[in-house]
Amino acid sequence: MKHTPFAQDPLRNLAQMAIPALILGSAFSAVVMRLTRTMMLEVMRRDCMRTAVAPCTTIIRHALRNSLIPVVTLVGLLAPVLVGGAVIMEQIFVIPGIGLLLLEAVSQRDYPIITGAFLVVGVGVVAINLLVDVSYGLLDPKVRYR
Predict the structure, then answer these.
(1) How far is it, in rounded angstroms, from Cα 48 to Cα 32?
(2) Binning pLDDT at 50, 70 and 90, where does residue 3 land?
(3) pLDDT higher for 57 or 35?
(4) Distance between CA atoms of 2 and 16, rounded to whole angstroms?
(5) What is the pLDDT of residue 106?
(6) Where are the alpha helices (DSSP H) in 46-64?
(7) What is the pLDDT of residues 62-98, one digit of tens each?
């Protein structure tokens, strides 16, 4: 099977990534949905939410924003696990990516490529953790950075 560059045929490449993305996403979706439901029920049981009129805007503005803080934390913690799963998915579905490059570099003992791949993955994980920390300030008005 000949691999075409992404710029030549992006729709075909997105179609090729649909099944691996579905497999990776479904692995943790139940955990994230269950935590979201639990936190939403906990916030809705508070006295301030029971006394408030419950239109959809109140639920979205107040309850959902307060209940998403632990969910965002969980998603940030699961991001490195998803990157590790992506390495396996690239190997199974023969998708050219950094995971396949890393596996080939390990088998050939190509240390500069191994170091570079780990550097790229590490920077990605740090960037995801930064986004999680910044999103706390957007979700909860009590959490503001100075």
Answers:
(1) 25
(2) low
(3) 35
(4) 13
(5) 92
(6) 47-51, 56-58
(7) 677 778 888 899 999 998 888 888 888 888 888 888 8
Q: Tokens in use for 116?
A: 């570079």
**What was the pLDDT predicted at 1?**
46
- The one-character DSSP state at 53 is -
Q: Which of 51, 73, 78, 76 is nearest to 63 (CA)?
A: 51
Distance CA 100, CA 103 (A): 5
Q: What is the DSSP letter of 3?
A: P
Instruction: Give the C-alpha distances (Å, rounded to integers) separating 38 from 32, 94, 135.
Output: 10, 38, 20
Q: Could you tell me if 75 and 17 are in contact, meaning their C-beta atoms sit under 8 angstroms apart? A: no
Q: How far is CA 85 from CA 22, 27, 69, 137, in A?
A: 12, 10, 25, 30
Nearest to 66 by CA among 130, 129, 143: 143
Q: Tell me which residue of 108, 79, 105, 103 sits closest to 91, measured CA to CA.
A: 103
d(CA 67, CA 32): 12
Length of the chain: 146
